[in-house]
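User: Predict the structure for this protein chain, please.
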Amino acid sequence: MKKKVSKKSKRRLLIFGILSIIAIGYFFVTLIGYTYSYISLKNEENNLKNQLVSLQDKKVNLKVEIQKLNDPEYVARYAKENYLYSEDGEYVLKINDTTPVVNSVSNNNNYYLIIGVGIFLFLIVIFRLKKKEKK
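Assistant: Here is the predicted structure, written as structure tokens:
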């Protein structure tokens, strides 16, 4: 024996269902947005940490270079190597290094993938609810 459900309770369930789906959808979109923001901030933090380490190494190297520049023999050799300075009777030959430079492109843009999966899951929930309403 089936229970008869009144129109009023069907309407109430329909309205509550729609509001629930909207709330769940909003929750997922917000969750995806915050997740994407968190991931991008974490990547930026890692990049800045790496940059800090490289700058600290550069600082140490520059301090050593400053100490070396106080030596007159080093200054003379530095001028000969980098500025092609030569004394009388000397010839300076500059040989360029022709090592190829490889550029790598990395794409960390997963934002659209995350949004797509969220929308897909949202549509699955809607279709399942429609199937239950038809039964």
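The first helix runs from residue 7 to 69.
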